[in-house]
Amino acid sequence: MKTYLTLLVVALQSTMVFAQDDKTPYMTKSLASDGINNVSVNTSAGGIEVSGASGQQPRVEVYVRGNNNEHLSKEEIKKRLDNDYDLSVSVSGHELTAIAKSKHNFSNWRHQLSISFKIFVPENCATDLKTSGGGISLDHLKGNETFTTSGGGLHIDHLTGVIHGRTSGGGIEVFNSNEELDLQTSGGGIDAKNCSGNIRLNTSGGGIRLDNLKGQITAHTSGGGVDGDNIEGELITSTSGGGISLKRLNGSVDASTSAGSLYAQLLHVGKYAKLRSSAGNVDIELPTKQGLDLDLRGDHVNQHHFEGFHGEWNDDHVRGSVNGGGAGVSASASSGSVNVKFN
């Protein structure tokens, strides 16, 4: 069965409820009997939220408000929607489609409306979301999730699947998610916490915070520093906009910065550790009992409690092994010192 909802319809169906202010939904549509497993949304001037959390009645809520938070009556909203926008919500084959788009270009931006969607669906649901005028939020979903905005941030929590998100106008928060995460912004920072799997994070407009991650992790920024804590697996990270501080690493790491110092605390080195700074010192803490092969270069190479070393030692270059050798550790500081400490 296919159901179409448009604001040109005068007679309201019993499944729709219209509100009169911007603090409650302008329109609500129940999805209780539709078994939604896919959501497609496209809006040019508003945010999108999709939740699969338990205990919620499946439904679509449409929020409409004036630009610059202008208060509008129900009658004025309806008039502007009828004249200036196409708004539709449809269900077909367990797929929900929601579209809000303007009919023409506005000569006065004050006449534009913000049309946002809040959608509540079963947990096993895929999404394809697009907006140029607001943020996107997803939580408690399992499936392939694709979403893009040029006018707001991304908030992701408890997602499992292939996750692909882009924004050029805000930051990214991703928590408690796993499998495959590919997230990118050119307009803000990234905060990733309690995630696992194949994780790719990229920003040119802010710093990156990594906390309690496990898997294959790539994180790059040209607009801020990188801070990480409790990371297991393989981490590849770089910045040209700040320093790097990495604590409690367990695995392989490739980290480089051209805009600050670099600190790395390795509880265990995996296959390798590569650390580079062209604008500051490199400070490394290494495990005392692990066999390692060292290649350290800087204006000076300094050590604390450095025992069992075999190889070549110069003021600016150390090459050799400890504890019989093993995983490779290389560090270079072209404008600073390399400082090594064993714990």
Write the layout of secondary structure elements.
Elements: E1 3-6, E2 16-18, E3 27-30, E4 38-43, E5 48-51, E6 59-66, H1 74-84, E7 85-92, E8 95-102, E9 113-120, E10 126-131, E11 136-142, E12 145-149, E13 154-167, E14 172-175, E15 178-185, E16 190-203, E17 208-221, E18 226-239, E19 244-257, E20 262-277, E21 282-286, E22 292-298, E23 301-304, E24 309-313, E25 317-322, E26 327-333, E27 338-342
Parallel strand pairs: 4-8, 4-10, 5-9, 5-11, 10-12, 11-13, 12-13, 13-14, 13-15, 14-16, 15-16, 16-17, 17-18, 18-19, 19-20, 20-21, 20-26, 21-27, 22-26, 23-27
Antiparallel strand pairs: 1-7, 2-3, 3-6, 6-9, 7-8, 22-25, 24-25
Account of the protein in words:
With 343 residues, the protein is mostly beta strands. Among the domains are: 134 residues, no CATH class; 83 residues, no CATH class. It has a 27-stranded mixed sheet that branches.
What tags apply to this protein structure?
disordered N terminus, mainly beta, 1 helix, single chain
Share in helix: under 10%
> What portion of residues belong to β-strands?
over 45%
The number of distinct helices, counting runs of at least 4 residues, comes to 1
| Average pLDDT score | 89
Brief sketch in words of this structure:
This protein is mostly beta strands and 343 residues long.
